[in-house]
Specification:
Distance between the termini: 19 Å
Shape: globular
Number of strands: 0
Radius of gyration: 18 Å
Helix content: 55-70%
Number of helices: 10
Structural class: mainly alpha
CATH topology: Ferritin
Largest sheet: none
Strand content: under 5%
CATH architecture: Up-down Bundle
Length: 258
């Protein structure tokens, strides 16, 4: 018998934590899909370790969000027993893993964003969140450097690798807008000193992202008006399929632990 879905409170503080925690959780799931399938053994290990780093960040954030929500849930229940519309990650994180070029370019875009965010969160008024950020910032710095090296290698590599990077950029670029969306949840978090409004990260992110693209010989993309809505629970067609895989064990064997 499958386990029932749970509900989560709507306080801005909990929503802010879930948006970040879900971002780490869902991207960890996508990156983990490379385990045993990466082009070389070294990358198989590197991507698996990055997925574990993100999963650890997600666990800390979801544990803290559950505690603040006060409904008696734990991080496993938040990770595996919510319905699709209750996940608050940007759509960029849930897009299928694609080829290796898409993976490293998405990793670079997201790790650059996360590094900026974690650095700001080290000064959070929430001591637990600041502590999570203090550990995560080191991991994000490694993820960014690793992904940037591959963006340069592939973008300025062969005709085939360059073409794949251009295709990856064309696919992911419109979804990057959501990383800098802003609403009442962001405003409340900023007012409380919990964390920054995501929109304030945009200028620094663009400067770092564009610098590496230019060095890799990739043409800078034109701005897109497209605005995905994953932060508000409106996801792509890919999310439900991913959750079916990610949640299967917990729903099929309720309360199962290792």
């Amino acid at each position: 018998m499958s386990q029932q879905s749970i509900n989560v409170g709507a306080s801005p503080q909990v929503q802010y934590l879930l948006r970040l925690g879900d971002s780490c959780l869902v991207l960890a799931q996508r990156i983990s899909e490379w385990s045993g399938h990466a082009p070389i053994l070294e990358e198989d290990l590197a991507l698996s370790n990055m997925a574990l780093d993100l999963l650890g960040q997600a666990r800390g954030l979801l544990t803290h969000a559950a505690r603040l929500d006060g409904q008696g849930h734990d991080e496993d229940q938040l990770a595996f027993l919510r319905d699709e519309r209750q996940y608050l990650n940007p759509v960029l994180m849930e897009l299928p893993r694609g080829d290796f070029a898409f993976t490293v370019l998405r990793n670079f875009a997201v790790s650059t964003w996360l590094l900026l965010l974690w650095r700001r969160l080290e000064g959070s008024s929430d001591a637990e969140l600041a502590a999570i950020a203090g550990k995560a910032v080191k991991e994000a710095a490694y993820h960014q450097q690793h992904a940037a090296d591959w963006v340069l290698r592939l973008g300025d590599g062969t005709e085939e690798s360059s073409a794949r990077m251009r295709a990856a950029l064309g696919t992911l670029w419109p979804y990057c807008n959501e990383l800098f969306d802003s609403d009442a949840v962001d405003a409340a978090a900023a007012a409380q000193g919990l964390g920054p409004d995501w929109a304030t990260l945009k200028e620094d992110w663009r400067a770092q992202f564009f610098e590496v693209l230019a060095e890799a010989g990739l043409e800078l993309p034109k701005d897109s008006a497209y605005q995905s809505q994953g932060r508000r629970g409106i996801h792509s067609e890919h999310m439900g399929h991913m959750l079916a895989t990610m949640q299967y064990l917990q729903r099929a064997y309720p309360g199962g632990v290792w």
